[in-house]
Specification:
The chain is mainly α. It contains nine helices and no strands.
Length: 183
C-alpha cells in the first residue's frame, strides 16, 4: 500500500493503518532498532512502541515520507532505551559511534534554536556530498550501522569506509567552524 494511503488510514483512525505499517515497515524498523540496541527483544519492543507513537502523532502530523518519519521515531526510542539500559551495562558499539561524533553534538544545555540551526547546517553539509559519501555517513551516524555492514552493502573495503568516515568528520568539522559553530 502506498504511504499516502496509510497516512489517510491514520487520519481516519482506522486500525488497518497499524497493520499496513507493520506489513510494509517492520523489517526496516527492526533493522534500525537492532543496529542501535544489539538486542532483538529490545528492538521488537521499540518497534511496537513506534507503532503506538505513530498512532498518537498522526494526526496532527502528516508525514510526507512515512519511512523517514517512522525511522526517526524508532531511532529515538532505541537510543532512549539504550541510555536506560546503559545503567546496567554499556553498549560498546554505540559508545564508539558517539565518541566519533561527540564534538559535533549539541551539549545538554543547548537550546532548541541552536539544535535546529545545527540540524540545518548538517543537512546543508550532507547535500553537498557525493551520494556514496552521504549514504555512508547517514548509515553510520543516523542508522548506527556497523562499518562491516556498510562495507558489505556497498561493496567497499572496511578500511575504505573508515577512511571515508574520518575524512567526512573532518569536512563536517570544517563546515561547522566556517558557519560559526564553536567546537
Amino acid at each position: 500500500m502506498e504511504d499516502y494511503k496509510i497516512v489517510e488510514l491514520y487520519f481516519k483512525r482506522d486500525e488497518r493503518a497499524l497493520l499496513e505499517t507493520q506489513t510494509k515497515y517492520a523489517k526496516y524498523l527492526n533493522s534500525i532498532s537492532y543496529n542501535v540496541l544489539k538486542s532483538r527483544q529490545d528492538a521488537e519492543e521499540c518497534v511496537n512502541d513506534t507503532y503506538q507513537k505513530a498512532w498518537d502523532s498522526i494526526p496532527p502530523n502528516s508525514p510526507q515520507k512515512l519511512s523517514a518519519y517512522l525511522g526517526k521515531i524508532v531511532r529515538n526510542l532505541s537510543i532512549s532505551r539504550l541510555l536506560y539500559n546503559k545503567a546496567q551495562k554499556r553498549n560498546k558499539n554505540l559508545e564508539v559511534l558517539l565518541s566519533e561524533i561527540e564534538e559535533f553534538l549539541p551539549s545538554e544545555s543547548s537550546d532548541f534554536v541552536e539544535q535546529v540551526a545545527l540540524k540545518e547546517l548538517i543537512n546543508v553539509f550532507l547535500s553537498r556530498l557525493e551520494k556514496i559519501e552521504r549514504v555512508v555517513f547517514v548509515r553510520r551516524y543516523f542508522y548506527a550501522s556497523s562499518i562491516k555492514d556498510i562495507s558489505s552493502d556497498y561493496g567497499l573495503k572496511q578500511g575504505n569506509v573508515k577512511v571515508m568516515l574520518f575524512r567526512l568528520r573532518a569536512k563536517l568539522k570544517d563546515h561547522l567552524q566556517r558557519e560559526g559553530v564553536s567546537i
